[in-house]
Amino acid sequence: MTVEGGGDRAARLTGPSAEIGGGQAGVGRALAPAGRVLEEFGDVVLLTGRTIRSAVVPPYPYGGEFVSQFLFALRLVWFPLLITTVAISYGAPGLQAANFLTLFGALDRLGGFFVLAAIREIGPLITATVVAGIAGTAITADLGARKVREELDALQVLGVDPVKNLVVPRFLALMVVTGLFDIYSLLFGIFGGIAAELVNGQPLGPFWGTLFANASTTDLWGSVLKTTCFGAIIAIVCCYKGMTASGGAEGVGRAVNEAVVVSFLGFGAFNYVFTQTLLATHPQILVIK
C-alpha cells in the first residue's frame, strides 16, 4: 500500500510536469521555423554590412572579377528580358488597358497609363524577376558548388577574404547591371504600348503626348534607383544562400530554389516601402494630367 501510494503520488507529481514539458517542447517546435528565419535575416544583414565595408575599404582586388560578372549577367539576361518585357507590357498594360479605355473613348490616355504601369512598376519588377531567375541562380549555384567542394574554406586558410574577392564583385556587378537593364526594360516596355496603340488603329501622337505630360525625372530616377536596390538585394541573398549551402548537389539545388524565393520576397517588400516613401516625398507625381 505504501509503495502504491508513493507510486500514485509520483504519478500525480510527474504527470502534470510531463504535460507541461511536452507543451513547451511543442511550442518550441512550432516557433523553430520563425527562429531560423530571424537568424538567417540577421546573418544576411551582417553579410550586407561586411560587403559594403569591403567594397569601400582598400585594397580593391576585385576589378577583374567585377567586369567578368558584369559581362556574364549581361550576356545571360538581355534576350530573356527583352522578350519578357515586350510580351508583358503589350499584354497587360497594353491590350488590357487599351480595351478598358476604349469603353470610355479615352484610348489617347494610354501613354499616361504607361507612366504608372511600365515606368514605375512593371519595368523594375520584370527586370528584378528576370535577373534573379537567371543571374541570381547562377551566382548561388557557383558559390554553392565552391562551398560544398570546400573551396571557400581553402581560400580562408590561404588568407583570402571570400567576401571581398567573391561577394563584393557580384554585389556591385548585379547592382550596376540591374539599374542599366531597367532603362532597357523601360524602352521595350513603352514599345509594347506602341504596339497596342497600332493594333487598335490609333495614331501615336496622343500616346506620346500623354506619356510625356505625365512622365517626369522623378519617375525615371526613382525607377532606376529602385531597380538598383533590387539588384543589391538579389546579390546579397543569392551570395548568402550559396555560401551557406550544404549537403552536396542536392543542397546546392535547394539553396538555388530558396535564393529565388527569398529574393522575390525581399524586393517585393522593398518595393512597397520605396514606393510609399517616393509618393509621400513627391506628391506631385500622384496628379494624372
Describe the 3D structure.
The chain is mainly alpha-helical. It has one domain (66-282). The chain has 8 helices and no strands. It has helices spanning 2-56, 63-103, 110-148, 151-157, 162-199, 205-214, 217-243, 248-281. Helix 3 (110-148) packs antiparallel against helix 8 (248-281). The longest helix has 55 residues, at 2-56. It is elongated and about 70 Å long.
Give a quick summary of the entry:
The protein is mostly helical. The chain has helices spanning 2-56, 63-103, 110-148, 151-157, 162-199, 205-214, 217-243, 248-281. The longest helix has 55 residues, at 2-56.
Helix content: over 70%
**Helix tally?**
8
Largest sheet: none
Separation, N- and C-terminal Cα atoms: 93 Å
Shape: elongated
> Helix/strand-derived class?
mainly alpha
Spatial extent as radius of gyration:
26 Å
Uncertain residue segments? 9-13
Mean pLDDT: 85
Q: Estimate what percentage of residues fall within beta strands.
A: under 5%
| Overall strand count | 0
**N-to-C series of helices and strands:** HHHHHHHH
Number of separate structural domains:
1
